[in-house]
Model the fold of this input.
Amino acid sequence: MPFRTLGLEPRVLRAVQEAGYSEPTPIQNAAIPHALAGHDLIGIAQTGTGKTAAFALPILTRLAAQPSDRRGTRVLIIAPTRELVVQIEENVRAYGRHLPLRVATVYGGVSENPQKLALNEGADIIIATPGRFLDLTQRRYGNFSNLQFLVLDEADRMLDLGFLPSIRDIVRALPRERQTLMFSATFSKEIENLTHQFQRSPKLVQIGRRAAPATTVTQLLYEVRNELKMSLLLHLLGNQELNMVLVFSRTKHGADRVARHLEQQGIRTATLHSNRSQNQRLRALKDFKSGSVRVLVATDIAARGIDVDGISHVVNYDFPKHPEDYVHRIGRTGRALAIGEALSFAAPEDHSALRALERFIGRGLVRRRAEGFNYHTIPAQRTYHQQAPRPLRLGASHPYAQEGQRAPAPCRPVHDLKAPGPLRRGPSRPPGMSSRGPNGHSREPSRHSGKPARPARGFRWRRR
Ligand code: AMP
Done:
């Protein structure tokens, strides 16, 4: 069925044609008529199948039919990550390029001022992450009394425990008379039961199974001991067919560690996780999209919704804890009917998560052994003072700046470090013990706070 039979506004239709879409995807075919008819909607379809256009096109059509002198924001789109907000904005701007609409984004990690201005000027469409949006609106920025459309993208993530309280607070401040659309690739019955708080008699549009990974992705499983995962990744990257690779790590530190190893082996790599500044995050995505880095190592922050053309492989370096994360992670490849491969590493301790995943997606993953990889090597154990020094950036005139040479990093064992001045008390740390506590904070007293050393027990400061 061609787009023109769906009842879209001619200017929206023109933009769709200019985007190069010849016909609607199944989720667009099924969702657009309901959304145009004014129904609340839950849309479930595989990753990369055009869900953004499925909600943006009917909303733009409805806005285009209204007089342009309406005051206040009319559409609020909420998404879980800043990168996804930026991406939705690009799509909405492209689909609405022939309409006189103001579109603005609201998300953390960047200056508030333009966002406050956009909220106060009443941008027609606001695309936001929940945290910054709530922060600004609770400080009375923006006017939502005329809001007509609320969209929760990656809806199951927005309604899980992490985001649910913020979503409740946001919705409480919106008019009850509105249309609420929710979209995701995974949507459990438990999460669906929560939607009645936000929607009225929603239509359910479901393409395929609720938890279906994209059919265009080949899924392979490598069973490997934890300590061999790095070597296996390097071995697989020896194959140049892995030309645009998204590697998922469970933790931010793990992501940094993997990226460091890859860089040391001469593989151009960027990292994306929440400890990086917003500029660094956007830069990493840009470099990955443009091909100036071959590998992007990310945490699950990149698992949802990110649409990067041409990702050849997704590697689950750390096996995902939740089956939903697996579906979203591997959905970063095989988008818009392209083909892709997902390679998952499973260590013995991941076997119960693996079984849960196979139940969730309704089939077993194909086991693969890497050809020519020695599964029996014992990787050298690295202690603190054996760690390979990080490469230093050296000026061309520096004696160590010759190709292939690295400045020797003076590494002393932890217990040789000098005590940091007179504040140090108590028994010295046993040899080999880390200077960091289990939460990653320094065990050492601050030498920078400028506060006086705490007086001994029983001693009182005397008032002058
Ligand atoms: P989404 O699921 O919205 O992230 O979209 C995934 C990809 O499909 C994006 O690159 C869209 O530009 C593309 N896309 C969306 N709708 C269509 C369509 N009808 N025909 C071709 N490509 C599309």
Remarks:
- Confidence is low (pLDDT under 50) at residues 383-464.
